[in-house]
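Hello forum,

I keep getting stuck at the same step: I have a sequence, I want structure tokens, and every attempt I make locally crashes halfway through. Rather than fight my setup again tonight, could one of you with a working pipeline run this one for me? It's a single chain of 91 residues.
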Amino acid sequence: MLPFQCYQHPMGASSVRKFPDVVCGSGVHDAMFAVAVIATSIYGAGFYTLCLFVACRAPEYSSRDVQFNRFFRFLLANFRSDTWWWGIVLL
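Reply #2:
Ran it on my machine without issues. Output:
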């Protein structure tokens, strides 16, 4: 999240908070910003895709695999077995 955090200089320019030598809007900052947006998107979409996959497999695996229930308790434990999909709705 560092490329998103810029601070204003007294003379009007702005720099990245963690790297004061990188001016916001420069080529280096744009490259950092692009990588940060892609990485954040992949992380967010990857986690949601994993949760969606787990929720779709929950009726099949939860009755026979104790380890499955333990790993994905945050997604499945608060709901009845016939409403397993509500974990995805609440994400």
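The radius of gyration is 21 Å. If your local run keeps crashing, start a new thread with the error log.
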